[in-house]
From TrEMBL:
Transmembrane segments: none annotated. One of its GO terms (biological process) is phosphatidylethanolamine biosynthetic process. Belongs to the choline/ethanolamine kinase family. One of its GO terms (cellular component) is cytoplasm. It comes from the Eukaryota. It comes from Solanum verrucosum. This is Uncharacterized protein. GO terms for molecular function: choline kinase activity; ethanolamine kinase activity. PANTHER family: CHOLINE/ETHANOALAMINE KINASE (PTHR22603), RE24176P (PTHR22603:SF93).
Length: 76
């Protein structure tokens, strides 16, 4: 709801990763979401190839693989 997202681009030594998404968690949302459970679920899905890869995490956010995508309109 109040997360901030940043797409970071640049050269990297990691294969196939030239853009990443940095997610900064919104303040106070931990009252509604269990962050530990959320990151475990995200990591599990990531490991199974269901969504972006989890590349790293830190106290107030995480770094994910950036996936070029578009919103699917309701007409589709």
């Amino acid at each position: 709801m109040t997360n901030e997202f940043y797409r970071i681009s640049g050269p990297t030594k990691r294969e196939n990763v030239s853009r990443v998404l940095v997610r900064l968690y919104g303040e106070g949302l931990d009252r509604f979401f269990n962050r530990d459970e959320e990151i475990r679920t995200f990591e599990c899905l990531s490991n199974k190839g269901q969504g972006p890869k989890l590349l790293g995490q830190f106290a107030n956010g995480r770094i994910e693989e950036f996936i070029h995508a578009r919103v699917c309109p309701i007409s589709d």
